[in-house]
Amino acid sequence: MPQLNPNPWFLIMLTSWSIYSLIIQPKLLSLTHINHPLNKPYMTSKPTPWTWPWT
């Protein structure tokens, strides 16, 4: 069964993870976010009761 032989795929996995960790990830982390979250207090609104026409 060729799936159990890790010899050709282990090097591919290590190469892809090293490329991701060393090249792609720093480029993605250096991007700046346009909309920063604001520290607004969370305000709850009081719901108004539903008035049923048949009561």
Automatic annotation (TrEMBL):
Transmembrane segments: none annotated. InterPro entries: ATP8_metazoa, ATPase_protein_8. One of its GO terms (biological process) is proton motive force-driven ATP synthesis. It is found in: Mitochondrion membrane. One of its GO terms (molecular function) is proton transmembrane transporter activity. Keywords: ATP synthesis, CF(0), Hydrogen ion transport, Ion transport, Membrane, Mitochondrion, Transmembrane, Transmembrane helix, Transport. GO terms for cellular component: mitochondrial membrane; proton-transporting ATP synthase complex. Pfam families: ATP-synt_8. It comes from the Eukaryota. It is a single-pass membrane protein. Belongs to the ATPase protein 8 family. This is ATP synthase complex subunit 8. It comes from Burhinus bistriatus. The lineage of its organism: Eukaryota, Metazoa, Chordata, Craniata, Vertebrata. The gene is ATP8.
